[in-house]
């Protein structure tokens, strides 16, 4: 159980939610685990299948407290809300801003600032942790270049220019990605990003990690009442979760990239976990995918101090925290969307 931004996150599995007066009560096997007053909650997010009592759902609906259900792994199931009040205004604001490219750029540049800032500090961490195993001067030069690009991003109000700056930053960062692979160099090398299909072991893992992160982000956005398919940087395309791709930009490097690098450098994954198809596509075996998913779920349980909120939360709740902050910005409660800036 974790309370964050007036949202109660129930992350322990098999917990049943019930109502007692003006309180939500958490029960597991008839044992009371906790009791939280409902008067200052905006929403309750439950990760599991056990459910909630009709009385609690009715209480929350009457008082505009959203009740959101996810699977244990974080996939969005449904959202119980009462009469449409705040939610419809939130989505209308999202749609209106998305239609305006200048306004979209002002929001999107914060996502990209977060992405480039985090990429810079991934490189800086490498110079601190492995000074004898990498070319420190090259990493420092790349870090300085990313700082220059960040200043340009902060002054940018044009989507096309912003995409160009993001591309420059990606090239600078990707040039050093292979240098961050410190083990199993014969079997794991990265020269450039290949997507459909991935053409090597590293790209196969990156693609899978990005897919998982995008799904987690989409679930978090749906949970706060936003439309995961209407973005600001990524424009509308049928079937594409554009807003999820927007917000996950700042988490790509620090969560997905670092996760993949750790699987290689700690020798959790090895060359026997992959196979190549006739068209050149490299895929993970079924057992490898299970191993990857287990490690991913374990990573989501690790704690980190949220840089904006100053609170210690599980990595798995970071997408939900960012979704809540984005919703607050769109409602006018915050002057600017605060990206996740990691050091």
Automatic annotation (TrEMBL):
EC number from the UniProt entry: 3.1.-.-
Keywords, in A-Z order: Antiviral defense, DNA-binding, Endonuclease, Hydrolase, Magnesium, Manganese, Metal-binding, Nuclease
GO molecular function, one term: DNA binding
UniProt-listed InterPro entries: Cas1, CRISPR-assoc_Cas1, CRISPR-assoc_Cas1_C, CRISPR-assoc_Cas1_DVULG, CRISPR-assoc_Cas1_N
Major enzyme class: hydrolase
Cofactor(s) for this UniProt protein: Mg(2+); Mn(2+)
Top-rank lineage group of the source organism: Bacteria
CDD domains tied to this protein: Cas1_I-C (cd09721)
Any Pfam family the entry gives: Cas_Cas1
Annotated positions binding Mn(2+): 166, 234, 249
Family: Belongs to the CRISPR-associated endonuclease Cas1 family.
Reported function: CRISPR (clustered regularly interspaced short palindromic repeat), is an adaptive immune system that provides protection against mobile genetic elements (viruses, transposable elements and conjugative plasmids). CRISPR clusters contain spacers, sequences complementary to antecedent mobile elements, and target invading nucleic acids. CRISPR clusters are transcribed and processed into CRISPR RNA (crRNA). Acts as a dsDNA endonuclease. Involved in the integration of spacer DNA into the CRISPR cassette.
NCBIfam families linked: cas1, cas1_DVULG
Protein name: CRISPR-associated endonuclease Cas1
Gene from which this protein is expressed: cas1
């Amino acid at each position: 159980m974790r309370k964050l931004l007036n949202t109660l996150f129930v992350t322990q599995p098999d917990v049943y939610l019930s109502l007692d007066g003006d309180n939500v009560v958490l029960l597991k096997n008839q044992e009371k685990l906790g009791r939280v007053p409902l008067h200052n909650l905006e929403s309750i997010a439950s990760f599991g299948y056990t459910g909630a009592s009709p009385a609690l759902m009715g209480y929350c609906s009457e008082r505009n407290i959203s009740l959101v259900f996810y699977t244990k792994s974080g996939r969005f199931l449904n959202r119980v809300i009462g009469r449409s009040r705040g939610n419809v205004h939130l989505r209308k604001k999202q749609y209106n801003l998305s239609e305006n490219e200048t306004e979209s750029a002002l929001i999107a540049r914060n996502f990209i600032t977060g992405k480039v800032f985090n990429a810079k500090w991934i490189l800086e961490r490498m110079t601190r942790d492995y000074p004898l195993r990498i070319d420190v001067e090259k990493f420092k030069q790349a870090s300085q270049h990313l700082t220059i690009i960040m200043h340009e991003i902060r002054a940018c109000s044009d989507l096309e220019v912003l995409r160009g700056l993001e591309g420059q930053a990606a090239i600078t960062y990707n040039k050093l990605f292979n240098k961050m692979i410190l083990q199993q160099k014969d079997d794991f090398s990265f020269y450039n990003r290949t997507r459909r299909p991935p053409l090597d072991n590293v790209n196969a893992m990156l693609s899978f990690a990005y897919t998982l992160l995008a799904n987690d982000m989409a679930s978090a956005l749906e949970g706060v009442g936003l439309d995961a398919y209407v973005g600001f940087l990524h424009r509308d395309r049928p079937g594409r979760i554009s807003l999820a791709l927007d917000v996950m930009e700042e988490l790509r490097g620090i969560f997905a990239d670092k996760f993949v690098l750790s699987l290689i450098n700690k020798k959790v994954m090895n060359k026997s976990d992959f196979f190549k198809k006739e068209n050149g596509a490299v895929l993970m075996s079924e057992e490898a995918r299970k191993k990857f998913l287990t490690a991913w779920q374990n990573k989501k349980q690790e704690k980190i101090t949220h840089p904006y909120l100053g609170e210690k939360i599980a990595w798995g709740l970071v997408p939900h925290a960012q979704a809540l902050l984005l919703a607050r910005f769109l409602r006018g409660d915050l002057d600017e969307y605060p990206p996740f800036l990691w050091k």
